[in-house]
UniProtKB/TrEMBL annotation:
Subunit structure: Homotetramer.
Cofactor: Mg(2+)
Protein name: Xylose isomerase
CC per GO annotation: cytoplasm
Active site: H100, D103
PROSITE patterns the UniProt entry points to: XYLOSE_ISOMERASE
EC code: 5.3.1.5
Residue sites binding Mg(2+) 2 per the record: E267, H270, D306, D308
Enzyme class: isomerase
InterPro entries assigned to the protein according to its UniProt record, in alphabetical order: Xyl_isomerase-like_sf, Xylose_isom_bac, Xylose_isomerase
Species of origin: Martelella mediterranea
Catalytic activity reported: alpha-D-xylose = alpha-D-xylulofuranose
Length: 436
């Protein structure tokens, strides 16, 4: 049933690259089979409730620019927002969505009221999911917006805030489980510090570890089969966040014995803020066995902060999905559009344009990545570069059969004097450009 918010716009269809219709997919054909399965199963698109429905278009120097009929209200407005949300999901044909608790429920005066409001909306969502076939990719708790979290949630110096946070996470895990969510995400927006002058870093890291252990314990207690994911980000809003990047998160997980229980949800914009590429973070997570899911967006590279724009760089997406495919593709994870409109894009149709462009970009990237995998375009040169390590002596050096003294004696005896070999970076970049 139409809410009227999007007017008479019909469901977005695939019309191919020659179409001039701005409300049609040019490259994302959900049923197109790539490497043995449809694009919709490869990409597993999800729409972010917070940016698409809850964000008001403000910035540090100006307030609301969007005029949405569900703003400034209680439960009835929250249900109207849900109606429009599921209409948006359906128009786009995206199979999944994601939400924080505060995105979907009215804020109450107490934890009990928040829980009551969330449970009412969860029941409403359950009906919408049954009606539309939509699924929940992941749920999470917003433990950063309210002023009670200004000094962190799990890492807060006040144990009452830790307790409130733990209770809120429980209710959000319950909601995610009830809705059949495939993942539960923890993003510690305030889990860090502004200054070390008032921070006991060791104590805060121990608190964060205890919270994550409780999350894992509760997952098993309630029989939640989905992945627990941590989302890395280096800074902003805090000066320094403890979940800085994939390497930092993995070191934390390993120290606390959680590396087999928790994976990462990697965001393109956060990777850039950490001084990495998206491709780097995905490759490292793949190598460490902790690649869970991705948030897809981009930053304005001149702004230097997290601008959360819709993706439009196909070569970047191709290299990102190349790493996803090498990891075996998504299982419980997917591609969540953690992207928001620009504050001047105020029309309802702009929500569709942003997602259509992003979905087309991802589809082009995935198809290019799949062709590179199938052709061995990058793997063959990589194998050639490391071919020397297949030699029996080389294997002995790595296996521990040869000591430092043994290797030194071999180098002297055989007069080993290696000549440098080209890394052929430009050649490899040209290969990628051939596919994108």
């Amino acid at each position: 049933m139409s809410t009227g918010f999007f007017g008479d716009i019909a469901k977005i269809q695939y019309e191919g690259p020659n179409s001039d219709n701005p409300l049609a997919f040019k490259h994302y054909n959900p049923d197109e089979v790539v490497m043995g399965k449809p694009l919709k199963e490869h990409l597993r698109f999800a729409i972010a409730y917070w940016h698409s429905l809850a964000w008001e278009g403000g910035d540090p120097f100006g307030g609301r620019t969007f005029d949405r009929p569900w703003y400034d209200g209680g439960m009835e407005k929250a249900k109207l927002k849900a109606d429009v949300a599921f209409e948006l999901f359906t128009l786009l044909g995206a199979p999944f969505y994601c939400f924080h608790d505060v995105d979907v429920r009215p804020e109450g005066d107490s934890f009990s009221e928040n829980t009551k409001n969330l449970n009412e909306i969860v029941d409403y969502f359950a009906g919408k999911q049954e009606e539309t076939g939509m699924q929940l990719l992941w749920g999470t708790a917003n433990l950063f917006t309210n002023r009670r979290f200004m000094s962190g949630a799990a890492t807060n110096p006040d144990p009452d805030v830790f307790a409130f946070s733990a209770a809120t996470i429980k209710t959000c895990m319950d909601a995610t489980h009830k809705l059949g969510g495939q993942n539960y995400v923890l993003w510690g927006g305030r889990e860090g510090y502004e200054t070390l002058l008032n921070t006991d870093m060791g104590k805060e890291l121990d608190q964060m570890a205890r919270m994550l252990h409780m999350v894992v314990e509760y997952k098993h207690k309630i029989g939640f089969k989905g992945q627990i994911l941590v989302e890395p980000k280096p800074q902003e809003p805090t000066k320094h966040q403890y979940d800085y990047d994939v390497a930092t998160v993995y070191g934390f997980l390993q120290k606390h014995g959680l590396e087999k229980e928790v994976k990462v949800n990697i965001e393109q914009g956060h990777a850039i803020l950490a001084g990495h590429t998206f491709e780097h973070e995905l490759a490292l997570a793949r190598e460490l066995g902790v690649l869970g899911s991705i948030d897809m967006n981009r930053n304005d590279y001149q702004s230097g902060w997290d601008t959360d724009q819709f993706p439009n760089n196909v070569p970047e997406m191709a290299l990102a999905y190349y790493q996803v495919l090498l990891a075996g593709g998504f299982t419980g994870g997917g591609t969540n559009f953690d992207a928001k409109l620009r504050r001047q894009s105020i029309d309802p149709a702009d929500l569709l344009h942003g997602h259509i462009g992003g979905m087309d970009c991802c589809a082009r990237g995935l198809k290019a990545a799949a062709k590179m995998v199938e052709d061995g375009a990058l793997q063959k040169p990589l194998d050639e570069r490391y071919a020397g390590w297949e030699d029996a002596t080389a294997k002995k050096m790595l296996s521990g059969e040869m000591s430092l003294e043994d290797i030194a004696a071999m180098v002297e005896k055989e007069n080993i004097n290696p000549a440098p070999k080209s890394g052929r970076q430009e050649y490899l970049e040209n290969i990628v450009n051939k596919y994108v």
